[in-house]
Write a structure and sequence with these properties.
- About 80% of the residues lie in helices and about 0% in strands.
- It has 7 helices and no strands.
- By secondary structure, it is mainly alpha-helical.
- InterPro entries: VTT_dom.
- Keywords: Membrane, Transmembrane, Transmembrane helix.
- This is VTT domain-containing protein.
- It comes from Hibiscus sabdariffa (roselle).
Amino acid sequence: FGYGFGFLLIISAAAVGVSLPFFIGSLFLHKIRGWLEKYPKKAAFLRAAGEGNRFHQFKAVALIRLSPFPYMLYNYCAVATHVEYGPYILGSLIGMVPEIFVSIYTGTLIQTLADASQERHGLSAVQILLNVGGFLITLVTTVVFTVYAKRQLRILQTEEELV
C-alpha cells in the first residue's frame, strides 16, 4: 500500500487494537489489580505510567510502547494503573510509529526484492546500496529507540520505588 496509505491503514487498526483491550480490561479490573499486587517489582513501571499528570502518562505509555514490553499484556493492564484513555491512546499511537515504519519499510523492501527476482533484471548498484543502507538505518534506529525507552522506563521505575 506504500508509506502514506499503509501508515494510515495500520495506525487506524492500531487505534482499534489498543482501545478494545483497554475497555475490556475494565471488566477484569479486580483480577488485573490482583496480578499487579502479586508481582510488585515487575509491575512497578506499569504503575508509574498511571501516576502524575496527563503528559507524564502520555510519556510513560509511549515509552512502554517503544520498549520490548509485550503490547498485549500492557493493553489490559493499563486500565488498572489509572492511566486515562486520552494519554493512553495518544501515547500508544505515537510509541507505535517507529514499529509501523519498520513494518512498512520491510514490506516495501520485500516487494522490491520480489519484483527484481520476477523480472530477472536484478537491482542496480544504487538500488542495492539504498536498500541495504535503508535497512541498516532502520535497524539502528530501532535499537536506539529500544535502548532509550528501556533506560527511561528504569528511571520511572526507580522514581516509583522511591515514592
